[in-house]
Fold this sequence. Notes:
Number of helices: 7
Shape: globular
Structural class: alpha/beta
Radius of gyration: 15 Å
Amino acid sequence: MKTYFLDTSALVKRYHQEVGTDIIDEIFGEEGKVLFISDLSIIEFHSAIALKVRTREIPRDAFFHLIGLFSYELDLGLYQIMRIDEEEKQEAVKLLTKYGFDYALRTLDSLQLAAMESVGKEKLDWVVCADARLCEIIRLDGFHVINPEKSGRLPGC
């Protein structure tokens, strides 16, 4: 059984066909997998899909369909949701100090990384992220990373 933490950049690929969707589909097809997301990802997901409407990648009615599908899978319990509380916010501030100068760690990404840390390196087999800059920071922080836009296949396959 593998355990994954999905950053929003990777999560969107579950619901919208784009580069890297094939890797996400492989992960979702695994038996017994555990998928973590942060509660922040729920908000970021809505924003990412709205951006696709604004840039005319998808029509407005597709927004409601994709949000509905995501909400349905949330309700099914497909994801373990990591809540970002005060402890994670304090950790995010530390991470911004640690990585903000040299690696341009941004606010929301620091909260995502703090959520990953709360789940724990020992509990997560992989962090899945499609943001190359954030992937570098996640690796520096000691996690194993899959970038579905850069991987031809899942590690170990």
